[in-house]
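EI: anyone free to look at a 103-residue chain?
SC: sure, send it
EI:
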Amino acid sequence: MDLIEEREIFLTFYEMISLKIIFWRYEIMKTLVKVALGAVAFYGITELSCVDFIAIMWRRLMMRNEDLAADALDNAMKDRSPNWERKLYEFLRTNQAKRYLKR
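SC: here you go
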C-alpha cells in the first residue's frame, strides 16, 4: 500500500468513528430528554395530586364540623400558593363542596 491509500483508509476509518460518536451522542441526548420530560411530568402529577388531596382534606374537615381547621387550611392554601395552584385549588374545592352538599 502506498501512502495515499493508507491516508484514505485512515480518513474513512476516522469518519466512521466520528459518525458513531455523533450517533452515540444523539442517542444519549434522546435518552436525557426523555428522562427530563418524565421528571417534569412526574413533578406535575405530584403537584396536582397534592392539591387534590388538600381539597379532599378540606371537605372531610367540613363534614366533621371542623370549620376552624377547614378555614385555616383554606387560608394557608390561598396565602402560600402560586397563582395556578390557587386557581386549581379553588376549582377542586368547589367540586368537593358540591360533593359535600350532595350528602
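EI: The radius of gyration is 29 Å.
SC: 👍
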